[in-house]
Amino acid sequence: MSIQKATLNELNFLTELFDSYRVFYKQESDFEGARAFVKERFINEDSVLFIAYDESTPVGFVQLYPTFSSVSMKKSWILNDLYVNPSARKKGFGEKLIKKAIEFAEETGAKGVSLETGHDNVTAQSLYEKIGFKKESNYFYYFSI
Q1: CATH fold for domain 2-131
Q2: Which InterPro entries does the record match to this protein (predicted)?
Q3: 23: which of 13, 42, 85, 117 is 20 to 30 A away, CA to CA?
Q4: Where exactly are the structural domains of the chain?
């Protein structure tokens, strides 16, 4: 098992994983759209991706987006996407990817890593809490189009 920071050289692997991730969230498969989206993140340096390998087979990824806190005057990272192929689940890849994201945040002097998940995603919630994430109860989150 290895986790490494992804580069444009892994675009084909990441495209397959990213498309599968979207399908998992009930989106239509769109391989070319996924490829364009991931490639644009690399070109614009909008995000940081880490890819997990089971020996030489890519099996998962985590994608982080930067944000900033005006109050603390520090960068933070949003763990926006986490995916592990079904065949590689329950082997620790998700946990390793999250820990790599936290390590990266520490290395970059960030305030921390935030994430959100569905109320019904109990499996993910259990993993996040095991790693040390705390459920936020002091704030309401709003969204507008």
Answers
A1: Aminopeptidase (3.40.630)
A2: Acyl_CoA_acyltransferase, GNAT_dom, MshD_Acetyltransferase
A3: 42
A4: 2-131
Q: What mean pLDDT comes out for the span 99-111?
A: 97
Strand-pairing partners, residue 5, are 50
Q: What is the helix (H) or strand (E) element at residue 133, kind and residue range?
A: none
Burial 99-119 (b: 16+ CB within 10 A, else e): ebbbebbeeeebbebebebee
- Is the separation of the CB atoms in 38 and 81 below 8 Å? no
What tokens were used for 99? 């820990």
pLDDT digits (tens, 9 = 90+) for 36-50: 999 999 999 999 999
Cα separations (Å) of 32 from 11, 18, 23, 74, 130?
Answer: 12, 11, 14, 35, 36
Structure tokens at 65: 């987006």
67's enclosing H/E stretch is: strand 57-69
Q: How far is CA 100 from CA 12, 25, 93, in A?
A: 22, 23, 10
pTM score above 0.90: yes
Query: Could you read off the pLDDT of 80-102 as tens digits, one per residue?
Result: 999 999 999 999 999 999 999 99
Number of Cβ within a 10 Å radius of residue 25: 9
